[in-house]
Amino acid sequence: MSELHTPHAGDDRSRDDDVVALLMRQHGDIRNLFDEVEATTGEERRDAFRRLVRLLAVHETAEEEVVHPFARKGFPGGEQVVKDRLAEEKAAKETLAALDELDTDDPKFMPRLLKLRRDVQEHARAEERYEFTHIRRSTDVTNLAAMAKAVKAAEAMAPTRPHPGVESGAKNMALGPVAALMDRTKDTVRKAMGK
Ligand SMILES: [Fe+2]
Ligand SMILES: [Fe+2]
């Protein structure tokens, strides 16, 4: 791994056996990737944006497959909390797909990215406040660890740092569109949960 990267929230992996800590760490990684996209231009921005798209797609899919189903039944009011979060995730995914069609140098790119950032940030805050806190209170370390394992399997599909030596976007592009990535993430998560 490169020595030259800026510190990421995920540098401390010690709490990754708790699904809530793990997802909150990913929220931090997502924030950092938005920063990176905003701070770069040209090929570097393209690369940072590909990593952001992948992490967002993988993160939201893992939440939908692992923590939302638990939250729905896990605590009083969970059903409504999950309904609200799913509506936010759907809106964010649509913005993401629209953004993904633009080149990162397109003049329309930055305003759309900033809108996505605001929506994603608000959504993450709502999850932490109305969902994650209750999940932690409603289950035990064994279940938190089991859910973390499935989320980690998904995370392996979205490296947050550039691949050393990959200067062109070609390798990233080969991963295909957002929807296909989400489908593959679903399969990976379900397999990790033994489904
Ligand atoms: Fe989410
Ligand atoms: Fe989230």
From TrEMBL:
Q: Where is the Hemerythrin-like domain?
A: 19-132
**UniProt cross-references to CDD domains, sorted A to Z:** Hr-like
- One Pfam family matching this protein: Hemerythrin
Which superkingdom? Answer: Bacteria
Q: InterPro entries given for it?
A: Hemerythrin-like
PANTHER family in alphabetical order:
HHE DOMAIN PROTEIN (AFU_ORTHOLOGUE AFUA_4G00730) (PTHR35585)
What's this protein's name? Hemerythrin
